[in-house]
Design brief:
The chain is of the alpha+beta class and about 90 residues long. The protein has one domain: Beta-grasp domain (Ubiquitin-like (UB roll)). It contains 3 helices and 7 strands. Strands 2-1-7-4-5 form a 5-stranded mixed sheet. Strands 3-6 form a two-stranded antiparallel ribbon. Strand 4 and strand 5 form a beta hairpin. It is globular. The protein starts with 6 loop residues before the first strand and ends in a 6-residue tail after the last strand. The model has no long low-confidence stretch (mean pLDDT about 90).
Length: about 90
């Protein structure tokens, strides 16, 4: 069975993630899957993001998402790294 067709998925990045990527967003080829799948795909496509990917929150359509939540092609996605300070 052939793989489902992929489409570009743009992911917004903030703070340290944007600094690592050198951009406020990145685009990956996406044929659908879970948040965990998206984390893996982002790590493959943008290895500089790996240090923060596991510790960062993911928002899909403006809501925080668990790793098991599906991410449809064309979704609005943001990666929010942990915030430190005091």
């Amino acid at each position: 069975m052939p793989a489902p067709p992929s489409s570009p998925l743009t992911v917004a990045l903030f703070a340290g993630m944007a600094e690592l990527a050198g951009a406020r967003s990145v685009t990956v080829a996406w044929s659908g899957g879970s948040v965990a799948d998206l984390r893996r795909e982002l790590g493959v496509a943008h290895p500089k993001l790996i240090p923060l990917l596991e510790r960062s929150a993911v928002a899909v359509a403006g809501q925080y998402a668990t790793d098991t939540q599906p991410v449809a092609a064309g979704s609005e996605v943001a990666i929010i790294p942990p915030v430190s300070g005091g």
